[in-house]
Structures are given as C-alpha cells and as structure tokens.
C-alpha cells in the first residue's frame, strides 16, 4: 500500500497535535433529546438508537466519573494511550441548563491525563450562552463541538424527522466558527431518496464552510427503529460495499483536503444490524477503502475547487 495519505485521518491529526496516541473515551452523561422528549417530537430521528453507541446501554447506570475512569483504564491497557479525549456522545449534550452543563462538563477536570473534550449536539440546541461556557474549557483543553447535520437538504431532514433545517445548522455554525472551538458536522451517506448529486452537493457545501473536521456515516438500519419500518415498507436502496466505496470516494474527492476525516464508518452490534451486513467488518472496511483509493490513485480533495 502506498505511504501517501489518501485522506486526512483524525488519528494522524491527534498524533501531530499531541505527539503521541490519544484515546477517545465515549460517555453517556444522561442527557435527553428534544426530538424524543416531546419538545420537538416524541419519535426522534428515524434512524436513531442509542444502543448502537452506548457501551452501558441495558445495564445499571454508571456514574460519569466512573465511565471516564473505565475508559481511561481500557485505553491505557489496550492501546498504551497516556492522553485522552472525553466524548459526550449519547443524545443531545447541550440540552440542559447552564448550571447543569457546567456541573457535567467539569467532571473532566478530575482527570489530569484528559487533554480534550468533544460534545455532540443538535444545531438547534446551541446559543451564545452555551458557547461561552464551552469555550471556557478551551483554556485548558482542546474543545470540539460536533453538530448532527446528516444532510444539507431540507427535504431529507424532514423525511428522517430531524426537526431542524439546514438554515439552523448555518446559524449554529456562524455562532461557533470564530470561537476557540473546533467544529465537526456529521453527515450520513445513502439516506432514502438522496441521489449521488445530492450527496456530492453536501460535500461541496461542507468544503465551502471548511469546518475543522467531518464525520461521514454510511446509512445503516437498526432493528426496532422507524427506519426499519420504512425500509420494510418502501425497500429503498441499500448500497453494496462496492457501490458505497464508489460514492464515498467521490465524496472525499470533492471535500476540501484540509478538513480532517474524523469517521468513515459506523458501529452497530451484530444482533441489532438489519442492513448493510458489510458494516459488521469495520476494520476491514477501512483497509479496503485505503487499498481502493491507492488502486485508483485518488485522494481527498483532488476534485475540490475553491
């Protein structure tokens, strides 16, 4: 395999930034979501199921401090990591009062080997007061704010019951971009009724905005979600691995080469995954992608235009 990096990997960025391996500790701080609790909707996004990324789902709740300590211990033993990021992942991690948010985020201060925090949220659950609080942590930590965007197309956002618009994202991004906070939007490739042109337009628009990073998720169907019901009824297209590689590689080629790629796949327990089955082999997925990009001699941003 070529030694030339075909896309800008988050792991490489962290090694450059901190001069050693950094392990990300994902936690569930007990937040809710306005798209589930009835404020916007009680059904949530049609694809959402916290079981797919919550290590403690189905078990007795574990205190946040203990979750962080467990993650640090695991990262140290398995990966020999000495520095850590704490990722507030489950649900909407800015959806609480300022006092509650500060109390929760302050937990990272109890760990000397934590060098950064990442906060996942919705673009309609942010304001300047919350951003003022989050930015204060940048005095000590590298701070990331991850916005669940999924698509720039409002017709898609409505279909998947996001209950926000692309304009909501742009407003949140505008509030955030000039602060000492790094931004990472999430997008999903393969959403129902989106064409290749639709998705490449998302790549071009993200490139125009130039956030520090992006997470790219392949659409996958989880058991007992509204997306599974939709799929059983309408049988929308599910990409084969080869088809998805074609799409993902084109997406990367149109993406600004300075944007860090924070994720290219997704996690889902085998017993919960409906489709696509190839998602079960995440490590192999990345290896095959690297080989395919080498074979085609293409790279992130080689079709990007200012």
What's the short version?
The protein is 36% helix and 17% strand. It is built from 10 helices and 9 strands.
Structure description:
With 306 residues, this protein is of the alpha/beta class. It has a single domain, classed as Aldolase class I (TIM Barrel, Alpha-Beta Barrel), CATH 3.20.20.70. Helix content is 36%, strand content 17%. The protein is built from ten helices and nine strands. It has helices spanning 10-18, 64-79, 98-105, 128-136, 154-159, 166-176, 196-209, 226-234, 241-253, 282-296; strands spanning 22-27, 83-88, 114-121, 142-150, 182-189, 213-218, 221-222, 260-263, 273-275. The strands form two sheets. The chain has a seven-stranded parallel β-sheet, with helices on both faces. Strands 7-9 form a two-stranded antiparallel sheet. 38% of the residues are buried. The model has no long low-confidence stretch (mean pLDDT 91).
What is the secondary structure topology, with strand pairs?
Layout: H1 10-18, E1 22-27, H2 64-79, E2 83-88, H3 98-105, E3 114-121, H4 128-136, E4 142-150, H5 154-159, H6 166-176, E5 182-189, H7 196-209, E6 213-218, E7 221-222, H8 226-234, H9 241-253, E8 260-263, E9 273-275, H10 282-296
Parallel strand pairs: 1-2, 2-3, 3-4, 4-5, 5-6, 6-8
Antiparallel strand pairs: 7-9
């Amino acid at each position: 395999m070529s030694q030339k990096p075909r896309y800008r990997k988050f792991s490489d960025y962290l090694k450059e930034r901190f001069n050693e391996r950094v392990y990300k500790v994902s936690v569930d701080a007990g937040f809710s979501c306005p798209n589930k609790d009835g404020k916007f909707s009680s059904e949530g996004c049609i694809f959402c199921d916290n079981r797919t990324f919550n290590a403690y789902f189905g078990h007795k709740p574990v205190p946040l401090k203990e979750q962080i300590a467990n993650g640090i211990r695991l990262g140290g033993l398995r990966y020999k990591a000495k520095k850590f990021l704490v990722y507030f992942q489950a649900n909407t991690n800015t959806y609480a009062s300022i006092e509650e948010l500060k109390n929760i985020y302050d937990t990272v201060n109890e760990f000397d080997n934590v060098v950064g925090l990442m906060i996942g949220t919705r673009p309609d659950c942010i304001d300047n007061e919350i951003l003022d609080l989050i930015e204060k942590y940048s005095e000590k930590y590298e701070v990331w704010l991850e916005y669940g965007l999924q698509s720039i197309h409002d017709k898609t956002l409505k279909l998947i019951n996001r209950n926000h618009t692309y304009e909501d994202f742009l407003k949140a991004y505008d509030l955030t971009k000039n602060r000492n906070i790094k931004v990472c939007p999430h997008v999903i490739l393969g959403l129902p009724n989106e064409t290749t042109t639709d998705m490449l337009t998302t790549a071009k628009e993200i490139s125009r905005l130039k956030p520090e990073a992006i997470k790219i998720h392949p659409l996958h169907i989880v058991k007992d979600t509204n997306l599974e019901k939709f799929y059983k009824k309408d049988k929308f297209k599910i990409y084969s691995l080869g088809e998805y590689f074609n799409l993902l590689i084109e997406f990367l080629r149109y993406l600004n080469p300075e944007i860090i790629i924070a994720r290219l796949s997704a996690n889902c327990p085998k017993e919960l995954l409906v489709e696509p089955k190839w998602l079960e082999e995440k490590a192999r997925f990345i290896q095959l992608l690297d080989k395919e990009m080498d074979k085609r001699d293409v790279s992130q941003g080689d079709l990007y235009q200012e």
